[in-house]
Amino acid sequence: MKYSAFFKKELKKLKDEGLYRSFREIDRPIKKFPKADEFKNNKERDVEVWCSNDYLNMSQHPEVVNETVKTLLEIGTGSGGTRNISGTSSFHTSLEKKLANLHNKENALLFSSAYTANQSTLWTLGKKIKNLEIFSDELNHASLIQGIKNSGASCHIFQHNDVDHLESLLETTNPNHPKLIVFESLYSMEGIRSPIIKIVEIAKKYNAMTYLDEVHSVGLYGEKGKGIAVEMKVDQDIDIINGTLAKAFGQMGGYIAASNEIIDYIRSFSPGFIFTTSICPSIAAGANKAIEIVSLAEQLRIKIHDNASTMRQLLESIAIPCIDTNSHIIAVMINDPFLCKKVSEKLIEDHGIYAQPIFYPTVPKGLERLRITVTPKHRKEHIENMVKCLDKVWSNLSLPRKNSTQLQVNN
Ligand SMILES: Cc1ncc(COP(=O)(O)O)c(C=O)c1O
C-alpha cells in the first residue's frame, strides 16, 4: 500500500466535499473579551468571538483564575498519575462531592473530559451487562455513539426526540433483557430540549435504566444551574447524569453523577477512568470555585438567556433562518457546506466576527449552520453589530431569507 497516497487521496476527497476543517488561531485576553486577538500570516488583529462554549465566562472569572493560580503555585502542575497510582488529591475528592451535590446524586466520578466519561461509561455498561439493549437518540453526541458502538451491545436508534418511536422499539425488544435509554437534555447543535419527562415515564414502564448527557445544560438551567433533570424534577429518575467542566464552568474535564454503587462499579471497571492520568489539581480547584460561583450566579443565567433572546429577535426581524427554540444556543441554518464556510469566512475577513462553520460529521450533511453563542459579557451593541454584519453577508451572498426557505430540522 502507498500510505502517503492514501492520506492525500482521503484529504482531497474531504476538501472536494467541502468538509475539510481549518482552525483560526485566536487568543482571548481576559480584559478584551468578547474581543480577541487573531493571528494570521504573522499579523495580529482584533476579532469578536461568537462561538465560545465558555458560556458564563467562568474561564476568565477573577476568583476562578486566582484559585487556579494559587493551587498551581502550592501543588504544582500535574496530578502525578492515574487515580489508582497517585492521582487522587483533596481537590479531586471535594470536586466529586460538589458535583454529586449539584445533581442531587449520591456520588460522582471525574474523567479527563465529558467525551471520555460518555465513551468509557457506556462502553463499560454495554460490555459488562449481559444482553444489554441500548436505545439511543439519532442525534446523540459522538462520544455517546462511540461508547455504545465500541461496546458491541445491541443498539436501537430512535428518531430524534420521538417518544413514540422509542416506545415502539422497546415494545419489540425481549422483555427479559436489561435496557438502557441514552439521550441528552439539550441538543447542542440545535438548542432543542428532549422530552425528558416522557422518556422517564417510558423508561419506568419498560424497566429501562436512563443515561442523560447534560453537558450543555449544567450551570445554565434549573435552580442554581443544577441542569434540566433537576428543573423538570426528574433527577431521581435518571440513573446516570453526564456533565462537563469545560462549558458553563469554564475549565476542562468531565464526570458522571449517579448512585454510590454505579459510581463504584464504573470506578472499578471503566478503562477510560482507570488507565489515564487524573485532571490537574489546579483545574479541579478552578472547577470547584467555578461551581460555587455559578450556583449563586442567577444574574449570569438571566443575562445569557436575555442576550440569546435579543439576538434571536433581531435575526427574526431580518428573516435570517434560525432553529426555533428559547435556549442559549442559536443555530443559523445555511444547509450547504461551501456556503456555510463562505459565510463564516466573510464574517471574519470583512467584519472581524468569529463564528466557526458547523458541518458533517458534527451535524448531518445538508444541515450545515453557524452555531452562535452569546455570553453574559456580550453587550447589546455587540449583538446589534453582529446581526448587522450577518445581514450584510447574507445579502452579499444572496442567501434565502426565512419566508423563502423551509427549515429542515425536526423539532
Ligand atoms: C453533548 C456533548 N456531550 C459531550 C461532549 C464532550 O465534552 P468535553 O468537551 O468535556 O469532552 C460534548 C462536547 O461538546 C457535547 O456537545
Spans of at least 5 consecutive residues whose pLDDT stays below 50 are 404-411
Compute the number of structural domains: 2
The CATH topology annotation of the largest domain reads as Aspartate Aminotransferase, domain 2
Ligand set: pyridoxal-5'-phosphate
The helical percent reads 40-55%
Number of helices: 14
DSSP summary, beta strand count: 16
CATH class of the largest domain: Alpha Beta
Rg over CA atoms, rounded to whole Å, is 22 Å
Main sheet attributes: strand count, strand direction, barrel closure = 7 strands, mixed
CATH superfamily of the largest domain: Type I PLP-dependent aspartate aminotransferase-like (Major domain)
| Oligomer description | single chain
Q: Element order, helices and strands?
A: HEEEHHEHEHEHEEEHEHEEHHHHEHEEEH
Assign the CATH architecture of the largest domain: 3-Layer(aba) Sandwich
For the largest beta sheet, what order do the strands appear in spatially?
Answer: 4-12-11-10-7-5-6
Description:
By secondary structure, the chain is α/β, with parallel strands linked by helices. It folds into 2 domains: 15-49 and 298-404, Aspartate Aminotransferase, domain 1 (Alpha-Beta Complex), CATH 3.90.1150; 79-296, Aspartate Aminotransferase, domain 2 (3-Layer(aba) Sandwich). Helices cover 42% and strands 17% of the residues. The strands form 4 sheets. Strands 4-12-11-10-7-5-6 form a 7-stranded mixed beta sheet, with helices on both faces. A 4-stranded mixed beta sheet has the order 1-2-3-14, covered by helices on one side. Strands 13-16-15 form a 3-stranded antiparallel beta sheet. A hairpin with a 4-residue loop joins strand 8 and strand 9 (192-193). Helix 2 runs antiparallel to helix 11, helix 4 runs parallel beside helix 5 and helix 13 (337-351) crosses helix 14 (380-396). The protein is globular and about 60 Å long. It starts with a helix and ends in a 15-residue tail after the last helix. Pyridoxal-5'-phosphate (PLP) binds at residues 113-115, 118, 141, 143, 184, 188, 213, 215-216, 244, 246, 254.
